[in-house]
Design goal:
Layout: H1 5-14, E1 20-23, H2 33-42, E2 46-50, H3 66-77, E3 83-84, E4 90-96, E5 99-106, E6 114-115, E7 120-123, E8 126-129, H4 134-147, E9 153-154, H5 164-177, H6 188-194, E10 198-200, E11 207-210, H7 211-217, H8 220-226, E12 232-236, E13 246-250, H9 254-268, E14 275-276, E15 279-280, H10 283-297, E16 307-312, E17 315-321, E18 328-329, H11 342-350, H12 359-372, E19 377-380, E20 383-389, H13 406-415, H14 424-432, H15 439-446, H16 451-464, E21 468-470, E22 483-485, H17 487-496
Parallel strand pairs: 1-2, 12-16
Antiparallel strand pairs: 2-5, 3-6, 4-5, 7-8, 9-11, 10-11, 12-13, 14-15, 16-17, 17-20, 18-19, 19-20, 21-22
C-alpha cells in the first residue's frame, strides 16, 4: 500500500476510532503500541500512525531515529516473547511538511494473538485486555475459526499424512535464509505448532492438523480427502482457442503446486534480458512469483471453484475463489492488501515463496510495466481475477496456424528460436549429457522435484526439439534408458560460446 501526504491528512481528519490509532513516538516507540497491534490483529485490522499526537497534530518522528524505530518495531513483532504468534506488517514512511510519519497497516489475523502473554481486543478507540474474561476470549476464538477456514482442525489426520521429506526441505530452506531460524532445532510437530499448522479446536478441545497444514504439506491422498475439489488448472491457449495447446492439472500440496506453476511459466513465457543497476534479474520470475503465491495464498478453499492460470496471446489471466472485501477493479497503487489466509501466507514467507504483505504487489506493478508494457489489472469479487500483459517475441497472432505447429513454438522457447536466448538449464543439461545420463540425473540438474512435471515440461521438450535422444529408442521405459546430446544440441552449445547467455553477463 502506498500512502502520500494527502491521503495521510485525510486519515488524520477522521480521528481515532475502531481501526485508526495515533502514537506520538517522537524519539522511541510507545510502550503500548504493541497492545494496539495485538488488538487490531484480533479484531478487524486497522492503521497505526507513528508520529501523530492524540489530537491529530503531526509532531513527526525525529529524523535521526526513524530507521531505529522501524527496526525496533519489526524486531518486536517478529519476537514470539513480545507478540505471539509473531506477524509481518507493511510499514510506509510518509513525509508531511518536512515531518516524518510511519504508516503501519495491520490486517485482521486468522489467529488469536497475545502481547506479553495478554490477549487484547479493540473497542471504539481503545485497546481492552480481555485475558481474564473467559466468555470474551471464547467468543474471539470461535469468531476466528468461523471466519478463516484455514484454521479448521482435522483431529483424525496425523503426521504420517504429511510429506515428511517436504517438511525437512522447508526447514532447511528457512534456516538457509535465516541462520538462527527457530525451526532449525525443532522436530516436525514443534515446527507445525510454531507455524500454527497444528492447533486445538476451541469448541471441541481436540487437537490436530489444520486445513492450512494439510494444504501446505499434505500427501496427495489425505489432501484430496480433506479438500476433494482442490486443483489449479494451468492452460496454454494460443493456437487451439477452443480447447488448449498445453495443460497441467495440479492437485498436490501448495508448496509443490507453487513449483508446478513456476515450471509452467518457465516453459511458456519469455524471459527478456533485464538489468537492475548492474545486476541481471528475471523480471518474469519476479512477476509470476507474486502471481503464483497469490493464486495459492489468497484462495478461499471452502469454495469448489477451480483456480486457473491461462496463458493467451499477449496476456496471462488468473482466476481463484475469493472472500471479497469489496467489488470491482482495484487501484494497485492505493489498495489495502488483505490476507485471506494469514497462516498459509506466513509459511510461504518463511520459505521464501512470498514477500511481506503489500511489497510483492509493488514489485509486480514495477516489473509488469517493463515486461509487458502495462500495469496488471486486478478485479475483486467472489472470483478474484488478474490480467497481466506479457511480451510475444517472434510470434504473430494467426488463427490459421495449424494445431501441430504449437510444438514448434514450445520447442522454440527451449532452443531459443522464439526468444533469441537459451535458458541456462538447457545448456546445463546439454553439457552434462555429453555422456549418457539417466532421467533422474537430469532431473537433479534441472532442480524440479515432481517427476511428472519434469518429464512433461523439460525432458519431453528436449526430446521433441531434437536436442537429446534416447540410447534405447525402441524401449522408452527401459530401466537401462539413458539420454545423450545430439548434433543439434552440440550446435546450440557452440552457438552460445562467446555470447551473452540469459541471466549471465
Amino acid at each position: 500500500m502506498n500512502t502520500d501526504a494527502h491521503q495521510l491528512n485525510a486519515l488524520i481528519a477522521r480521528g481515532e476510532g475502531l481501526n485508526l490509532e495515533f502514537k506520538t513516538c517522537r524519539d522511541q516507540l510507545s510502550r503500548d503500541v504493541f497492545e494496539t497491534v495485538c488488538a487490531f490483529l484480533n479484531r478487524h485490522g486497522g492503521i497505526i500512525l507513528l508520529g501523530v499526537q492524540d489530537d491529530g497534530s503531526i509532531q513527526g518522528i525525529g529524523p535521526d531515529v526513524v530507521e531505529q524505530i522501524r527496526k525496533d518495531f519489526v524486531t518486536a513483532i517478529n519476537n514470539p516473547q513480545k507478540l505471539s504468534p509473531p506477524t509481518y506488517l507493511s510499514i510506509v514512511d510518509v513525509e508531511v511538511d518536512s515531518r516524518r510519519v510511519l504508516h503501519i497497516y495491520v490486517p485482521e489475523s486468522s489467529q488469536v494473538h497475545r502481547c506479553n502473554g495478554r490477549i487484547y481486543d479493540r473497542n471504539e478507540d481503545s485497546d481492552l485486555d480481555i485475558t481474564d474474561h473467559t466468555a470474551q476470549v471464547a467468543q474471539l476464538y470461535q469468531r476466528k475459526q468461523a471466519t478463516y477456514s484455514e484454521n479448521k482442525v482435522f483431529s483424525h489426520v496425523g503426521l504420517d499424512d504429511l510429506d515428511r521429506e517436504l517438511i525437512a526441505r522447508c526447514r532447511k530452506t528457512a534456516t538457509l535464509r535465516w541462520e538462527d531460524h527457530p525451526w532449525k532445532n525443532m522436530d516436525d510437530l514443534e515446527l507445525l505448532k510454531s507455524a500454527q499448522l497444528y492447533q486445538t479446536d476451541a469448541e471441541t478441545g481436540k487437537s490436530g492438523l489444520t486445513l492450512a497444514g494439510i494444504l501446505l504439506l499434505g500427501k496427495q491422498s489425505p489432501l484430496l480427502q480433506a479438500v476433494p475439489h482442490h486443483r489449479t488448472d494451468l492452460i496454454l491457449r494460443k493456437v487451439n482457442l477452443d480447447r488448449y495447446d498445453d495443460r497441467d492439472f495440479v492437485d498436490v500440496n501448495l508448496v509443490e503446486s507453487y513449483e508446478r506453476i513456476m515450471a509452467f511459466v518457465h516453459k511458456h513465457l519469455p524471459d527478456p534480458f533485464y538489468l537492475e543497476g548492474t545486476t541481471s534479474i528475471s523480471i518474469r520470475d519476479a512477476i509470476f512469483r507474486e502471481v503464483a503465491s497469490n493464486i495459492l495464498i489468497h484462495r478461499e478453499y471452502t469454495n469448489a471453484f477451480p483456480a486457473k492460470l491461462i496463458i493467451e496471446y499477449g496476456q496471462v489471466r488468473t482466476e481463484n475463489s475469493n472472500r471479497p472485501h469489496g467489488f470491482g477493479r482495484l487501484d494497485p497503487e492505493s489498495f489495502t492488501p488483505f490476507p485471506k489466509n494469514p497462516v498459509i501466507a506466513r509459511f510461504f514467507r518463511q520459505i521464501g515463496r512470498a514477500d511481506e504483505l503489500g511489497s510483492g504487489m509493488r514489485k509486480m506493478m514495477k516489473y509488469s510495466r517493463a515486461y509487458g508494457g502495462a500495469d496488471p489489472e486486478l478485479i475483486e469479487g467472489d472470483i478474484f481475477r488478474m490480467i497481466i500483459t506479457v511480451p510475444e517475441f517472434g510470434a504473430k497472432k494467426d488463427s490459421s496456424v495449424e494445431p501441430g505447429q504449437v510444438t514448434g513454438q514450445v520447442t522454440g522457447q527451449v532452443t531459443g528460436q522464439v526468444t533469441g536466448q537459451v535458458d541456462p538449464w538447457v545448456l546445463d543439461v546439454l553439457r552434462a549429457c555429453e555422456k549418457p545420463l539417466k532421467s533422474s540425473d537430469i532431473q537433479k540438474i534441472v532442480g524440479i522435484k515432481h517427476r511428472e512435471t519434469f518429464q512433461r515440461n523439460y525432458l519431453d521438450q528436449l526430446l521433441k526439439g531434437g536436442l537429446l535422444i534416447r540410447t534405447i529408442p525402441d524401449s522408452p521405459q527401459s530401466r537401462m534408458q539413458r539420454y545423450v546430446i545430439t548434433e543439434k544440441g552440440k550446435q546450440i552449445i557452440a552457438s552460445t560460446r562467446g555470447e551473452n547467455i540469459k541471466g549471465q553477463k
